[in-house]
Design goal:
single chain; 469 residues; alpha+beta; elongated
């Protein structure tokens, strides 16, 4: 601890010194109060018991004031004048900017100048720029760091957490950014301008409108003295019309391809409502909107959403018609099929789908199922009745002994024509066997009548006479 005290006599910690590097690395010049409101917003809810606002501010910014003191000892920061209200302005040295580049994860070439002497005339413009950044950021307090504070402190911090948030983090902002007309970004030439603030937060500002636009420009007016923004804005609108004016479409919206959205607001309204409040006027429109709507094209988005909805409705209607037509076709086919459904010849009941399929089964064009005109129940009854009838007939018919066996044995010996393959009739069989069905067969008894070849007999008077069969 003694070594740390010797290195950092004001007792600052790495956390608070990191706040100073990040905030001054972006803003270039700021007060300890502004550094605290951005880097440690939970401290803004403490020290409410102090009698005056000045004493409260001093108390809540004491830790960052100590960090600035230690950093000045190390050559990282310095005092750069005072504000019109007497607050000290702080800025980083070249060495401090190098340290800040590591905290912000930016190249040193993008850190800009040290802003030395920016507060020599009170720093009214840098202070307005800083307040604009704070109003856009709307830093949220860390409630975990207020766990042991009084209930009223936690309640006030909870209200701030529940309020609409801001855009990005301190690392999302750049100040004093050159926009060169000639030269390069790092070495701008003559004729260019400088942006007080550049905000890069595509994750927060991305809006879908279909327009191919340039980055929007926000003009924040800080009313001082007799200057009246209400007279300045109309003049700016006319001078910049060629930059922001879109092309009106039939759907009641505009296309802004290749245009620059220019939006105006006041610092007082921005502080009070933040980017979510309806305090932004886009040039060419007659009403104020939240920032996201002002830089977008809500009318086009609404028109195209309606078009998509109508297209989706037409598609759904068409699909419904297809489904309805398919249903009607299926119902028609089912009705036609029912008119063809077979009816049992026995009981009159309609066939089931399974019985219909089985009864109509064929093999080589021939029905394979018995009793195809009966349902399953009637078929079972018919088969049972036929079986009983066959059993009774077999039981009561007289049996001639030997006849059936003889007939079977005889049929197995019935000759077959060697030419056409037809079985011999009984008459043909008897004719070729002469001696009866049991006698040995005659020579060449192989042809049916009309196909037997002629047989020659011994010559009689020199003529060959065919023997009739």
């Amino acid at each position: 601890m003694a070594g740390k005290r010797k290195t950092n006599p004001a007792g600052s910690t790495n956390s608070f010194r990191g706040d100073v590097l990040r905030v001054l690395g972006v803003l270039k010049v700021a007060t300890a109060d502004q550094i605290q409101r951005i880097g440690a917003p939970h401290l803004s809810f403490r020290h409410t018991e102090k009698p005056t606002a000045s004493e409260q501010k001093t108390a809540r910014s004491a830790l960052h004031t100590g960090a600035l003191s230690d950093m000045r000892k190390h050559g990282l920061s310095e005092t750069g004048g005072s504000t019109e209200t007497g607050e000290r302005l702080r800025n980083l040295t070249i060495k401090g900017l190098e340290a800040a580049s590591h905290e912000l994860r930016r190249p040193v070439t993008e850190m800009g100048s040290s802003a030395r002497g920016a507060g020599s005339s009170g720093g009214s413009h840098p202070m307005a720029v800083n307040e604009t950044v704070i109003a856009m950021l709307r830093p949220k307090p860390d409630l975990a760091k207020l766990a042991e504070d009084p209930p009223e402190v936690r309640a006030a911090a909870q209200a701030a957490v529940d309020a609409p948030g801001g855009i990005g983090t301190i690392a999302s902002y750049w100040t004093e950014v050159p926009l060169p007309a000639t030269g390069t970004w790092n070495a701008p030439g003559k004729g260019g301008i400088q942006a007080d603030i550049v905000l890069t937060a595509p994750q927060a500002l991305a809006t879908w409108s279909g327009d191919m636009i340039h980055p929007p420009v926000l003009l924040v007016f800080n009313r001082v003295g007799d200057r009246n923004p209400n007279r300045t804005i109309p003049r700016l609108i006319e001078l910049t019309r060629h930059l922001w004016e879109g092309e009106r479409q039939a759907g009641g919206f505009h296309h802004y391809d290749g245009r620059i959205p220019i939006i105006a607001t006041g610092l007082t309204n921005l502080r009070e409502h933040g980017p979510h409040g309806p305090v932004f006027l886009r040039f060419g429109r007659d009403h104020k909107e939240p920032l996201w709507e002002a830089i977008g094209n809500p009318r086009r988005e609404a028109a195209e959403a309606r078009a998509r909805g109508e297209a989706r409705a037409r598609q759904e209607k068409y699909q419904a018609q297809l489904r309805r037509a398919a249903t009607e076709q299926a119902e028609k086919k089912a009705a036609e099929r029912e008119t063809r459904r077979p009816v049992c010849a026995g009981c009159g009941a309609q066939f089931t789908d399974e019985r219909w399929e089985v009864a109509g089964a064929t093999e080589w064009g021939v029905l394979t199922n018995t009793h195809p005109h009966l349902c399953d129940v009637c078929k079972q009854r018919a088969v049972a009745a036929e079986g009983q009838a066959a059993g009774k007939q077999e039981h009561h018919e007289p049996v001639q002994r030997g006849v059936g066996r003889y007939d079977f044995q005889r049929e197995t010996r019935r000759p077959v024509c060697s030419e056409c393959g037809a079985q011999f009739t009984d008459e043909r069989w008897k004719a070729i066997e002469r001696g009866g069905w049991g006698a040995p067969p005659r020579a060449q008894p192989v042809l049916v009548r009309g196909l037997r070849p002629a047989v020659r007999r011994p010559h009689t008077r020199g003529l060959a006479v065919p023997v009739p069969v």
